[in-house]
Structure formats: structure tokens, C-alpha cells
Write a structure and sequence with these properties.
This protein has 328 residues and is mainly beta. The chain contains one helix and 22 strands. The relative contact order is 0.15.
Length: 328
């Protein structure tokens, strides 16, 4: 009996130790759980996505909006992560990668300093060795979490101070993500950044119940793969996505000079869950990706920051409930 009790405590300690660092925020209208950056115990330790602001779950307006969508979890797997999450993607793939010799270092913003192996080209979905994760500082309040990441790579000449605050708007079913990136290095920072979003709404499989609305008439370079379809200003589905199917395409038609085109409206007509996503900078690119368990409108913006300069941008998520209309 004593031995069983000791073993049970050991198992419990192991489970508790395995729980990644997280924070809960709540404003009475929205309740969310966020994972916190941690090089040793963090939920996500891959080298693709920014480690800050990872939303594990969110409930608002009587619905849930984010959650696990993947079958396999490994903390170092490039896409074993829940949304919204962001990726910084430079012209050569990552800051300093092109000029780095094999064995030297380059940077991924929001991740750290990485070592370049012998390879033909940058591999976006590969998990590189982290030489220096930088210095993270996290400040948690009742309705917000602020992340600060400071990184300097003397080898590449790049350095930055990155701030991200995820906060809930008082009295509203609304989440705001505020960003600040200051170039503290010697070289200009040229990068795109986008949010993968990873919408999982009420745990519903992606199909005819879902629509994604735009502020413009969306176009695709080629016909959208079945079952995806575009009608007017909406992307929708003619039938449920199959187990091994993917609907993916670049989306054009927006005005790259108009921040008002930086908007998506995602609705689950079966449950009534709805969200309006907006950004305060003009779009540089849109990719759309969805499988059976998740849909992702990916909104890119471009940043060019000279040494000593700082860039700021904000994303908003307004959650609501609309009249449910079953498509069965």
C-alpha cells in the first residue's frame, strides 16, 4: 500500500512537472489561456513560430474559438501549436541566414539565435538547434499578458527588442494583440510577419457551415481546390473537407494601400460562433489554408526597420454570436 502511494505521488509529480507554463486572463466577456515562452518546459519549442502570445484556448459569446487541431504533439514539431500564432519570414527565410556560414548563426524573431547546418536552402518547417533563446520577460495581469523578448546576435549583426501584449478590452468580447519591434542591431530588419490564426470554432469540422468573408472580391491564382469555393466576397465549402484533403491558396484582390482591406469575418452558421479579425496595416499577402479540423486565413504585413527605429502594429479579434442556421 505504501509502495503504491509512493508510486502514485511519483506519477503525479511527473504529470505536474510536464504541465507547461501558462496564464489565464478574463474580462468577464472573454476567458483565455495563453502558453508562456520557456526554453526548457514551454508548450512550443519549435523554431518556426514566435513563442509569445500562443493562445491555447478562448471562450467568448458562448462559444470556443481556438484549440488543438493536430493529431501529433511534440514541443519541437514546427506546427504543434494552437492559434493565434505568428511567424516572421524574411526574404531569405530568416534574418542573416543567407550570409551565415555553415556552423554560424542566424535569427528567427520571437524564437532566438539558431545554428545553420549543412543544407541546400532554408527549411521553414525544420526545427533548428537553438544557440541562444534570448531573454524573455513576461508580465501577467487579470486581463492581459505582456511578453518582452530581447535578442542580440553578434555574429550576424542583428538585434532587437520585441514586445507583444495580448489584452482583453474591458466590457467587450474583444481581444487585442499589440506589437512593437525595435531594431537595436547594426543591420536593417526586412521581414514579413503573419498570423496563422488556426481557427477551431466550437470543435466543429470544417465544411458547409463555415464562411470566411472579405472586404473585397477575393481571387485565387487558380481554381480553388474542392470542396472550397468563392462566391462574391465569401469563401465557403460545398461539402465537408475529407480526412486527407486540404483547401489552400493565395488570395488576391485586396488593395495593398488600404488598411480597411485587412479584415476577415469567420462564421460557423451551425453553432452561431463568429469572429471579426482586423489589422491596422495594409496587407502584403494573404494565404488561406484549411483541413478537416481547422481553418486559417493568414494575413501578412511587411516590415522594414532601420537600426534604431521601431515599428508598431495591432490586430483585433471581435467575438460574437449570430443566429445559427444549420446547413444539413
Amino acid at each position: 500500500m505504501i509502495r503504491f502511494f509512493v508510486l502514485s505521488l511519483a506519477v503525479l509529480a511527473t504529470v505536474q512537472a510536464a504541465e507547461p507554463p501558462s496564464a489565464q486572463i478574463d474580462n468577464g466577456k472573454v476567458r483565455a489561456k495563453l502558453y508562456l515562452p520557456d526554453a526548457k518546459d514551454g508548450y512550443y519549442r519549435g523554431t518556426r513560430f514566435d513563442w509569445s502570445g500562443v493562445v491555447a484556448s478562448l471562450e467568448a459569446a458562448g462559444h470556443s474559438y481556438f484549440g488543438v487541431w493536430f493529431a501529433k504533439y511534440d514541443p519541437k514539431l514546427h506546427d504543434a501549436i494552437t492559434g493565434p500564432v505568428e511567424e516572421f519570414f524574411s526574404p531569405s527565410g530568416a534574418l542573416g541566414y543567407k550570409d551565415a556560414a555553415v556552423g554560424s548563426t542566424f535569427i528567427r524573431i520571437g524564437v532566438g539565435t539558431l545554428r545553420k547546418p549543412q543544407e541546400a536552402a532554408f527549411q521553414r518547417f525544420f526545427t533548428y538547434d537553438i544557440v541562444d533563446p534570448g531573454k524573455w520577460k513576461t508580465s501577467v495581469k487579470k486581463d492581459s499578458v505582456t511578453f518582452a523578448h530581447v535578442l542580440r546576435d553578434s555574429s550576424s549583426g542583428y538585434a532587437y527588442r520585441y514586445l507583444k501584449t495580448v489584452r482583453l478590452v474591458p466590457g467587450k468580447a474583444e481581444m487585442v494583440i499589440e506589437h512593437s519591434l525595435k531594431n537595436t542591431g547594426k543591420k536593417r530588419i526586412e521581414t514579413d510577419v503573419y498570423n496563422h490564426n488556426f481557427m477551431v470554432m466550437d470543435g466543429q469540422p470544417i465544411g458547409p457551415d463555415f464562411t470566411v468573408g472579405f472586404n473585397f472580391a477575393p481571387k485565387t491564382p487558380r481554381a480553388l481546390a474542392e470542396p472550397g469555393r468563392i462566391q462574391g466576397n465569401e469563401l465557403s465549402y460545398a461539402r465537408p473537407i475529407g480526412d486527407r484533403e486540404t483547401v489552400m491558396s493565395e488570395v488576391t484582390g485586396f488593395d495593398p494601400a488600404k488598411a480597411s482591406d485587412h479584415e476577415f469575418r469567420v462564421v460557423n452558421r451551425k453553432t452561431g460562433a463568429a469572429v471579426r479579425i482586423t489589422g491596422d496595416k495594409p496587407l502584403s499577402k494573404i494565404l488561406y489554408w484549411s483541413i478537416k479540423t481547422v481553418l486559417s486565413p493568414e494575413d501578412y504585413i511587411s516590415l522594414s526597420i532601420d537600426p534604431g527605429r521601431e515599428e508598431n502594429w495591432t490586430s483585433r479579434y471581435e467575438f460574437s454570436s449570430v443566429k445559427a442556421v444549420s446547413q444539413d
